[in-house]
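Trying the structure run again after the queue cleared.
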Amino acid sequence: MTHAFVPPEDEEARSADQRPSAREGGADGGAGARDANLLGALSLAVAERVEAATRAAAAHGGSAPAALAALDVFLGGSSIDTVRKPLGLTHSAAVRLVDRLEVAGLVRRGAGVDGRSVAVFLTPAGRRAAAEVRESRMRAVAEVLAPLDADERSQLTTLAERLLGGLTSGRADAGHICRLCDADACGHAQGRCPVTRAADRAEASATAAS
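Done. Tokens:
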């Protein structure tokens, strides 16, 4: 079958040894390969929509949308070194990001809790931008979920909770996974967030083992 993005004449020109085999996870690779391929395609499509929506909302690309959202939810008043970790940035990259957001009037620097370090805070404009980032993310994902009915959404939620829990091995994972999250929508304060629950379990296990 011709792919939607490959002209028929190009598809016909491909030799048999150029086509994906079962060993390479092709059409005959079994249900597991198909599941993984579909999830990979879906993940990429959703990530691209979220990235475009949040970039437009923040009027800044790269890590800026996640930085604004995380500063509003759980990183406000943190040092640059603390801010960089959930974003996956080096210290120098985080400094440049904070510089850029400060020039834009979205964050300000202030004294840290120890009086020696520098902390990062959102300005009122930054809080408004963070809210728009979260709302734009929700709208983008809502469009993806639109074809599903209530029962299908419930099933997806159950599966997403299991997968997110499986991806979380501690606090560092939790901060990175949830850097764009709406904590209220997730039920974080009510103990319903699967990422927080998994991080709590991992921390408890590590403590018990030490």
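The radius of gyration is 21 Å. Worth checking whether this holds up in the mutant runs.
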